Amino acid sequence: MEVANVNSRKNMGRKKIEIRKIEKKSSLEVTFSKRRTGLFKKAGELCVLCGAEAAAIVFSPGGRAFVFGHPTADAVIDRFLGRDTDTSSRGVVPAEQVVHGQVQRQYLEAVERSEVKEEGGFWWDAPIENMGLNELEQFKGSLEKLREKVADRVTVMTLMMVMESESGAGPSSTTMVEYAAPPQEYNSSAVLHARDLAADSHSQAVPQGFDEPRF
Amino acid sequence: MEVANVNSRKNMGRKKIEIRKIEKKSSLEVTFSKRRTGLFKKAGELCVLCGAEAAAIVFSPGGRAFVFGHPTADAVIDRFLGRDTDTSSRGVVPAEQVVHGQVQRQYLEAVERSEVKEEGGFWWDAPIENMGLNELEQFKGSLEKLREKVADRVTVMTLMMVMESESGAGPSSTTMVEYAAPPQEYNSSAVLHARDLAADSHSQAVPQGFDEPRF
DNA sequence: GCATCTATCTATAAGAT
DNA sequence: TATCTTATAGATAGATG
C-alpha cells in the first residue's frame, strides 16, 4: 500500500461553510446531490411524524427537475415504517420511486409525445376506488391543452392534490404530480394570490378571525 | 431563586425518536413547527448554495398550508447574503414574506373572491421587465376558470415556473407559487406523467441517451 | 462521478422558564 | 403558549478509494 503524506492521513471532518453560492463546480454538484437528498428525507419525516402532506420540487442549476411527493400519505408512512405496500393497484407511483424521483425534461417530453396507453386508456385514466372525479378529469384534459399552447415559452409545473378525509379533521390521502415543459427563451414571470398575504411586515401575514385549527 | 429537584436540574437533551406518527398532540404540533421551519431553511440554503430553484408546500394535518418558494432566485440570494432587495417594484412577494409564509385556506379564498385590484389590474397582471408573456397570461386566465369549476371537489395546487437564462445553461430566475381551493368531500385521485418514470426498480427511472446536463 | 469515512457542524426532543 | 436550554441525534464538507 501507498504511504500517504501526513496531511492526508486523517480526514479533516466537516467544516463550516457560508451560505453563498458555491463557486467550485464539482463541489456544487456534490453538495446539490447531498442536500437534495437530505431535504427530501426531511420532508418525508415531516409527513410521517406529523401526518402532514408535503411536496417539493427542486430544479438544479442545469434545469433538471427533482420531485418529492407522495402518491398517498399511507404509502409514504408504510415506507417509513418498513412495510411493503403495493401501490400499483391504486394506479399511483410507488413511493420509493417518487420520494427521490428524478425527472428529466426530455424524457418527460418523449413520454408525453408517445402517449403510451395501457388497458385501453392513459394510465392516469385508470379507475381508482370511488373515482367519480369527472371534474378532475375534465380539468386535467383542459390543462393539457393549455400547457401545450405555452410549452415552448414557459416551464409550467402543475401539482394537483386531492385529499380524502374521514372526519372533518385529518386529510389522509394524496396525490402528487408533476411535469415541466422545456424552456427555450424566457422571461421572469408573474404569480398569484400569495402577494396579499404579504401585506406589510412579518407576523401579520395571516389575518385573525378564522376558526380553522392552527395545525 | 428556587431549588429545583435533582432530576430537573439538567435537561435531558435530545433523544432519538422513531419516524412514526407522533401520538401526543402537543408534541406533534411542536415538532411540526420546528421541522417545517427546518425544512424551509434547508430548501433556502439549497437554493443559495447551488443556484437551484426550489419550492415546497406542506399541509399540516389540520389542513393549513405552508409554502416555501421564492419570487426570484436573486431575491432569495440577496436575503441570505443579508442584502436588502426591493422586490416590490417587480410585483413579486418579498422573499422574507414567502420563505416562511403561512397560507390559510379561508383567507386565500377570501382574497380570491374579493379580487382586489390595484393600479388598474390584478397585481399579478402588472408589467414585469420584458414581460411579453401573452401565452402565460392566457394560460393563467384559463386556469383560473378551470379551477373554479372544480374548486368544490378538489384541492388544486398550481405552480408555474418561468425561468430566465442568459446562456444556454443555467436558468437563473423565478418561481411562483400558489394556492388551493377547499376540499369538502373527496376521493383519491389520478396523476400524470410520472408513472412511466417508475417503470420498474429503483435506479432505472431515467432512461439513458439524453444529452442534458446532469446538474 | 459514486460510495465511504470521519470530524464536525447543525437541527432538534425534552424539559425548564 | 412561546422561548430558551441542553445533550444528543442526524446531516454533511472534505478527503479518500
Can you tag this structure with a few keywords?
DNA-binding, alpha+beta, homodimer, 6 helices, 215 residues, disordered C terminus, three-stranded antiparallel beta sheet
What does this molecule look like?
The structure is a homodimer. Chain A is of the alpha+beta class. Helix content of chain A is about 30%, strand content about 10%. In chain A, strand 1 and strand 2 (about 65-70) form a beta hairpin. Chain A is globular and about 70 Å long. Chain A starts with 5 loop residues before the first helix and ends in a 54-residue tail after the last strand. The model of chain A is unreliable at about 1-10, about 70-145 and about 150-215 (pLDDT under 50). At the A-B interface, helix 2, strand 1, helix 4, strand 3 and helix 5 of A face helix 2, strand 1, helix 4, strand 3 and helix 5 of B. Chain A binds a DNA duplex (17 and 17 nucleotides) through helix 2.
Oligomer: homodimer
Low-confidence stretches of chain A: 1-9, 70-143, 149-213
Largest interface by Cβ-Cβ < 8 Å: A-B, 129 and 128 residues
Largest sheet of chain A: 3 strands, antiparallel
The sequence of SSEs of chain A as H and E is HHEEHHEHHE
Structural class of chain A: alpha+beta
